[in-house]
Amino acid sequence: MSVGALPQAAGSDPAYARFAPRLRALVIDSIVFMLALVAALIAAVALGSDHAGRAVGFTVVALWLLYEPILVSQTGGTIGHYLCNLRVVDDKSHGNVGFLKAVVRVVIKTALGWWSFVTMVATQRRQAVHDLFTRSTVQIRDLAKSQPYQYGGELVAATDPGMPSRARRLLVIAAYGLASFILVSFVVYLGAWIGILSISCLAKNRCSSFDNLWLNIVGIGWIGLCALLVARGWKGRLWGCRAQPRPDWA
User: Fold this and answer.
1) What is the CA radius of gyration of the chain?
2) pLDDT digits (tens, 9 = 90+) for 19-69
3) Which residues have C-beta within 8 Å of that of residue 24, sequence separation ≥ 6?
4) For residues 214 and 192, is the Cβ–Cβ distance under 8 A?
5) 123-170 confidence digits (pLDDT tens)
6) What angle do CA 26, 29, 33 make, to 5 degrees?
7) Which of 226, 197, 194 is nearest to 213 (CA)?
8) In whole angstroms, what is the distance from residue 236 CA to residue 39 CA?
9) Cα separation of 184 and 182, whole Å?
10) Of all helices (H) and strands (E), which one includes residue 185?
């Protein structure tokens, strides 16, 4: 077993984490960052010096940028991962991912935001985009401390002879994604027309708290719809790329 490898029992299958525990880990890490930020602000005020305040702020930013790469590469996960019984695993070594891979994971996850997790519904090992690019997975650290709904094994690949080609499925998913964007845009403009969304928010980006709430609800709904489209499209369940049943005589 390589250094940092997972202590799995012989013959046991990896338990890939579902979205819910990964979301909890992300929320916990966000709280850790907020607490660190508050502590830094208090320290800066207590020091009463502009230079000291800038030094404290720079230190907090540097620590946050290195927080996940260092912990993931050295211990297999962040504080959030550990508290949610998760571990980031390298596909090749079956141990901790390297520091550079951990940096790439953070950059991709930060750049894409929630969109990075959409692919979890269509990949065999429930991988987000940052997992796919770095060839890593997020697994349950200790099965004895987990519940069955928190993880799953490797999904069956969509390789049935009646399944449309990958290119066709991707093209159809992209078309549905574009259609959903048009639909969401219509919903936003409809909200402005019936008075739910203010005209100043739509035209001048001067949005009230209610406007932001409405836009967030619509945005989250669109992300959920896109995730559903990706899942159904990849499994051949969308019109235009439906899987064909195999004839009994074939």
Assistant:
1) 22
2) 999 999 999 999 998 888 888 778 777 777 767 667 777 777 788 789 999
3) 80, 84
4) no
5) 888 899 999 999 999 999 999 988 888 887 665 555 566 788 878 888
6) 135
7) 197
8) 51
9) 6
10) helix 166-193
Structure tokens at 150: 């928190």
Contact at 8 Å (CB) between 157 and 234?
Answer: no
DSSP 143: G
What single DSSP character describes residue 118? G
Which residues is 86 bridged to in the sheet? 140
As a whole number of angstroms, the distance between CA 210 and CA 217 comes to 11
8 A C-beta contact, residue 24 and residue 84: yes
Token pair in block for residue 204 = 């001048």
If residue 82 lies in a helix (H) or strand (E), which one and from where to where? helix 79-83
